[in-house]
Prior knowledge:
- This protein has helices at 2-5, 15-30, 35-58, 68-80, 86-107, 116-132, 137-150, 155-178, 180-183, 205-224, 232-254, 277-291, 303-324.
- It has 328 residues and is mainly α.
- Helix 2 (15-30) packs antiparallel against helix 3 (35-58) and helix 5 (86-107) runs antiparallel to helix 6 (116-132).
Amino acid sequence: MVSILRSNQPIAWLIVPITGLCWLLLSLWVTEFALGSLSIQALGSLTAATLTHRIYVRYDFVERGDPALAWLSMVLLLLLMPVESSGVAIRSWTALLLLLTTTDCVLQVHRQPLTSGLQFRSGALAALSVFLEPQLFGFVIAVAIVFGISRPFIFREWTMMSLGLFWIFALASTAHAFCPDLIQPVFASSDVPLRQDFNNRLISPDTARIWLIALSLWGALLMAREKSKISLRARTTRWHLMILFCVSIVIGMLIHPPALLVISRELPPAFDPNFHGVLDKVLAIGVAFGVVGLVPVSQRRHGASAKTAVLKMFVIVGSLLILFMPSV
Length: 328
């Protein structure tokens, strides 16, 4: 398994779509959910895994690209996936994909002489993601923190990012004022989550989230120990990703969706702050970036090093199996 996850051969990447296909077929067999709803979830997971793989390889997160992160992202997205109606699923997956696209833009800023265009696109895409899912409001703050670290005191670039942020909300408000039918279906109260979080799992949702976060912190600490072995670009990428996902998740869990970000004065049931469907998707991606540090590098090991590598894979696979395990 390690040789597959750490291989840079194109055929090794097939493990990701094969995982999604197996989940789709198994879900059709053991559940009563419609093919359309399950297909949206499978396609959304595959697309998100593709974008995380792009970030993983393009910005030197690791020296050699491999399917480890994409596979972990796919598995964790399927593991933490709530049961949603088609409308809610489309909206939450779209918001997640916009968030990942924004992350891609943010990471491009590293050591660029002029980033006004990138910051405008980052602001606009982040605002659109928050417009669809107000619980992602923390992501806008996270983007601002990253730009504050990497591009401080550059008035033109910060102005362009602010214009990108407010442009989307101004456009959406105008469209709602003149053509409410174009916007209102996005917030239709009938598109409520069908069921919250894990269905008939042996492990409770909160326990599973805490355990996955602990695993990701373990992996992140192991990657931090590689500081002297990796490039400045890799360290910057890892640091910025940690800020983006940690701040987004923490703020999303602590605050209610700001009323300013929702056109309707009454929050629809789909925006119930007790429902963390989209936040669990962001958590899955963030945890994957940490847990990938536990996947051993594919090379011959001996003695204590070999035992440690076996222990890491045992913990990863064992955790996933236990978290997937249904209650009896």
